[in-house]
Amino acid sequence: MSAIRHALSIKREDDFAQWYQEVISAADMAEESGVRGCMVIKPWGYGIWERMQRLLDDRIKQAGVQNAYFPLFIPLANFEREAAHVEGFAKEMAVVTHHRLIADGEGGLVPDPAAKLEEPLVVRPTSETIIGDAMSRWIQSWRDLPLKLNQWANVVRWEMRTRMFLRTSEFLWQEGHTAHATAEEAKVETMRALEMYRAFAEEDVALPVIAGEKPENERFPGARETWSIEAMMQDGKALQAGTSHYLGTNFAEAANIRYQDREGGQELCHTVSWGMSTRMVGGLIMTHGDDDGLRVPPALAPFQVVILPMLRDKPEDAALLEYCEALRASLAGQSALGEPLRVLLDTRPGKAAAKRWDWVRKGAPVIIEVGGRDMENGVVSLLRRDALWDINTGKPAFENPTCEAAAQTVPTILAGMQSGLFTEARDRREANIIRDITDMAGLSEYYGEDQHRPGWVEVQWSKPSGEGLEAVISQLKALKLTFRNVPMNTPPADGSCIFTGKPAVERIYVARAY
Amino acid sequence: MSAIRHALSIKREDDFAQWYQEVISAADMAEESGVRGCMVIKPWGYGIWERMQRLLDDRIKQAGVQNAYFPLFIPLANFEREAAHVEGFAKEMAVVTHHRLIADGEGGLVPDPAAKLEEPLVVRPTSETIIGDAMSRWIQSWRDLPLKLNQWANVVRWEMRTRMFLRTSEFLWQEGHTAHATAEEAKVETMRALEMYRAFAEEDVALPVIAGEKPENERFPGARETWSIEAMMQDGKALQAGTSHYLGTNFAEAANIRYQDREGGQELCHTVSWGMSTRMVGGLIMTHGDDDGLRVPPALAPFQVVILPMLRDKPEDAALLEYCEALRASLAGQSALGEPLRVLLDTRPGKAAAKRWDWVRKGAPVIIEVGGRDMENGVVSLLRRDALWDINTGKPAFENPTCEAAAQTVPTILAGMQSGLFTEARDRREANIIRDITDMAGLSEYYGEDQHRPGWVEVQWSKPSGEGLEAVISQLKALKLTFRNVPMNTPPADGSCIFTGKPAVERIYVARAY
């Protein structure tokens, strides 16, 4: 049995962080831009993000939310107002102070001192305050409620330590902002958005997540409740992959978002915000990547099937191309996962084997190679990205269906791969959640320095707040742990608090996290 | 015969500029944001832009162009490099100089002097230079060519006088950037993009355009050739609605975009860029709007059919809603213009008549009202936005087809409206292009101060350059005219230059313009 050679130089188990960088580079997804903290999202990475946008946007529209677009620049006054209302207000933001460049007399350019803005503008880090301004203009009466808006946009948060897709100064996201007449309606929307993210993550990204509420210290500044979906990466760390915030009337008060109720009284609105970002692409990589590169869930693959004709720069190429084009057309006429198949016939110059490994590293779900002999026999050589290697021979596990059989079975293969990737990730997560640790000694041992344990621990706790909570957090910090969330639909607590020894009131996940 | 009352307070013929503002407000498309030069694009306006994005993006992808995303911030050095290469370099740009806010001690916030950037960053006004940097990394050999990229993004150009959709400091657009081995291939791409814009404008926006080359003085700074599509607004002014630039090797030299050819030599790439922006939404308004508000071409309408049940807050409402929901489902099962119908059942509170006029002003192509009596008779009351008034009675021209007939005929109505709007605009344009003016006296008389002539004039000219061209431009400026373009597929010149009297070499459009 020959050894399997993997398509990357670094294996996950050897150095997960390095492996992550190598996948991004080898799958041609993104690269550093040379601009501090900003990345270039290359076509394959951006194509995956576009698929995420399309599928999540469909869900957003189905919920009756309307897309709109608000200014990139936010006046300083909005942040002053917010700072007065919000503790923990983040200040690392890009500030525009001038609106013109002039020559410096030495061949360079400088901001023109004569074009200094009277009031600096901030590049939006999030849009609660500017959308709040619009809501205060647009909402007059109960008839205008609920108002449900969403924006797809770039935002900027000045980050000192960046990591592609996971933390960059500029990133892409959607931010939903809704206003409601009552706390009850706002909470229903908070949970609707959370459930939308859960379904999107699990059904479209094949990313098993745990939906639950963040504890007090992890709330979005100014929020009354923060809910999240949390996913376990292959190194056992947690990634927060989407959040939904019930903001109470805090932001409504700051932006003066009021409505006249049916009795003529003036009431504050209850607002909600929810967001998902390009961070999700990082989550996809760290969940589905393997030692050969990325594996893209078929629902998100820009191309689900790549056909590689083995061209030889000879007259026979014409017939081979015709054969491949017929296969492409036949596949493109099929549907999988509710949409027409996305098929690429890759005729770029280069050896078919080299191109095969390009597509393996990019994680195209199905690669179909066609050589002259295949054509003579009416067959193709089909490779599934989720079953790349023949474990007996150690070679790529090509199947050789007839052309017709390939066209017919690909939709089934893709549907199976979509659910298979999900199941694989869910089983891995379930195997790495520990539920039987009941004291700090156990927790400390599990995450001890000499351990590289990949898991999350579900603990029971008494949910202290204020100083009590701070004491708990410093206990966690010593182990480099953070709270993730209090999962929904979990049995009630029945033990003692792992931190305080008091009777527990709920179960909560702790983990190391991105 | 009763008088027709229009849904707007201002008529096009009375004050076109004011009418334009009123349509934007009455159709709920956009509003001033309070942030200098930036607008808020409201859901109906943004929905139209999303439809434009979807339809143009399909055309972009069909051409083998790949979407990607590049940083919002561009280092000053890129502009210094560009300034050295490009005359007419625009300097009105937003400059980021700090990355943190701190309290000023008086309850306000100021940029933190300790967080001043070593090198200021410019908010992208266009991305040639930053994408050029990426191209120089990504292109090594002839095998990497052509490289065809596109970006959907926000850009910022500090504008002193702004006008919603037509000229705002921040706007949304797509910018295509391609690199090629030869001038010939680059020119083919330049023309492909131009033809793509023509087809998109005419088929999707129902906007008749004239595709042609801009004269020297109207070229994009640094370009060798600039081509445009130009549309005539209802006031006779021209709107440049899309451009495609052949950049030669200018930008390749500045960014060092080189490739190794088949013989091993190092060659500069020839680059191309092309763009279309939210300006197109302004063009749509000024072309298809009427004295009742906007008329949205069905291909771009976020909702093509709006169903308004005449609810009375009574028990009978339930049956009426059921009847309307069945109609909605039946319509949503149909296709028009190659896509499933987009249908809204509008059950918001409010009187049906008031809601009808909302949708008239927004320009929904078909409005279907259903009252209790309609239901009893198995009919609906259908209003076409392109045939709103019964010219005999002066009342809204409701038709009363059966429910089944309505569902069957709506696709035909929409297809007819799409081509009808185009034909109407094209006929108006053709009636307002003057081709028989052969001297400056005639031009001067046509555009004289006491005239409000809505037309363009096609003149013949000798195409001078340098000082000769400047003299011509000042002649035009005196009449507030600009060159638009030299149309493709026009008979060769056969007369004398209107400006110089020399033998003419080509025909060119002059017009007042946005």
UniProtKB/TrEMBL annotation, chains A, B:
<keyword id="KW-0963">Cytoplasm</keyword>
<dbReference type="GO" id="GO:0005524">
    <property type="term" value="F:ATP binding"/>
</dbReference>
<dbReference type="InterPro" id="IPR036621">
    <property type="entry name" value="Anticodon-bd_dom_sf"/>
</dbReference>
<dbReference type="GO" id="GO:0005737">
    <property type="term" value="C:cytoplasm"/>
</dbReference>
<protein>
    <recommendedName>
        <fullName>Proline--tRNA ligase</fullName>
        <ecNumber>6.1.1.15</ecNumber>
    </recommendedName>
</protein>
<keyword id="KW-0436">Ligase</keyword>
<keyword id="KW-0547">Nucleotide-binding</keyword>
<dbReference type="GO" id="GO:0004827">
    <property type="term" value="F:proline-tRNA ligase activity"/>
</dbReference>
<comment type="similarity">
    <text>Belongs to the class-II aminoacyl-tRNA synthetase family. ProS type 3 subfamily.</text>
</comment>
<dbReference type="InterPro" id="IPR004154">
    <property type="entry name" value="Anticodon-bd"/>
</dbReference>
<keyword id="KW-0648">Protein biosynthesis</keyword>
<feature type="domain" description="Aminoacyl-transfer RNA synthetases class-II family profile">
    <location>
        <begin position="45"/>
        <end position="297"/>
    </location>
</feature>
<dbReference type="InterPro" id="IPR004499">
    <property type="entry name" value="Pro-tRNA-ligase_IIa_arc-type"/>
</dbReference>
<dbReference type="InterPro" id="IPR017449">
    <property type="entry name" value="Pro-tRNA_synth_II"/>
</dbReference>
<keyword id="KW-0067">ATP-binding</keyword>
<dbReference type="InterPro" id="IPR045864">
    <property type="entry name" value="aa-tRNA-synth_II/BPL/LPL"/>
</dbReference>
<dbReference type="InterPro" id="IPR033721">
    <property type="entry name" value="ProRS_core_arch_euk"/>
</dbReference>
<comment type="function">
    <text>Catalyzes the attachment of proline to tRNA(Pro) in a two-step reaction: proline is first activated by ATP to form Pro-AMP and then transferred to the acceptor end of tRNA(Pro).</text>
</comment>
<dbReference type="InterPro" id="IPR016061">
    <property type="entry name" value="Pro-tRNA_ligase_II_C"/>
</dbReference>
<dbReference type="Pfam" id="PF03129">
    <property type="entry name" value="HGTP_anticodon"/>
</dbReference>
<dbReference type="GO" id="GO:0006433">
    <property type="term" value="P:prolyl-tRNA aminoacylation"/>
</dbReference>
<keyword id="KW-0030">Aminoacyl-tRNA synthetase</keyword>
<dbReference type="InterPro" id="IPR006195">
    <property type="entry name" value="aa-tRNA-synth_II"/>
</dbReference>
<dbReference type="GO" id="GO:0017101">
    <property type="term" value="C:aminoacyl-tRNA synthetase multienzyme complex"/>
</dbReference>
<comment type="subunit">
    <text>Homodimer.</text>
</comment>
<dbReference type="Pfam" id="PF00587">
    <property type="entry name" value="tRNA-synt_2b"/>
</dbReference>
<dbReference type="InterPro" id="IPR002314">
    <property type="entry name" value="aa-tRNA-synt_IIb"/>
</dbReference>
